[in-house]
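Quick one, tokens below. Sequence please?
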């Protein structure tokens, strides 16, 4: 699929259910609208092309997690592992989160069951669909050509004057 980022159109993997207007937890859709990066975690020296990421960032740690438990007060927020509620580990062996950028999707206000963990991260080699995230090819991250937002998903950008 294609995404508009800072006036550039780039190829990216998106949710297995396509682009969704009425986003719900676990629906596999990438939310329609504008997403802005908030912070990033990186693993090792994977992002060699960036002199510095333009959002707050640090190295990912084994205790880093993200809550997807709609019944928790920490829903759609960073948590330290171990964590009793349902959550996703941000240190992954498959390399998809070698760069993981948290976005402002469903953050202000945070509404339970409207979707959590909409990240920007590395795509699988075959660019297969995500669970709702936006994923760019590893080569694009390594060459530092993945712009870090804002992202326009399923909407046309305003014309420039």
């Amino acid at each position: 699929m294609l995404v508009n980022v800072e006036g550039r159109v780039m190829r990216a993997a998106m949710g297995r259910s396509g682009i969704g207007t009425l986003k719900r937890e676990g629906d596999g859709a990438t939310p329609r609208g504008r997403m802005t990066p908030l912070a990033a975690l990186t693993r090792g020296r994977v992002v060699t092309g960036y002199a510095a990421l333009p959002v707050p960032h640090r190295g990912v740690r084994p205790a880093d997690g993200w809550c997807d438990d709609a019944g928790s007060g920490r829903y759609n927020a960073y948590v330290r592992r171990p964590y009793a509620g349902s959550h996703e580990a941000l240190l992954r062996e498959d390399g998809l989160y070698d760069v993981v950028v948290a976005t402002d999707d469903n953050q202000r206000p945070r509404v339970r069951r409207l979707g959590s963990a909409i990240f920007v991260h590395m795509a699988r080699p075959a660019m297969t669909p995500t669970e709702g995230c936006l994923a760019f090819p590893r080569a694009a991250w390594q060459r530092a050509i993945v712009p870090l937002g804002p992202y326009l998903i399923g909407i046309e950008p305003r014309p420039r004057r």
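The longest strand covers residues 37-42. The radius of gyration is 15 Å.
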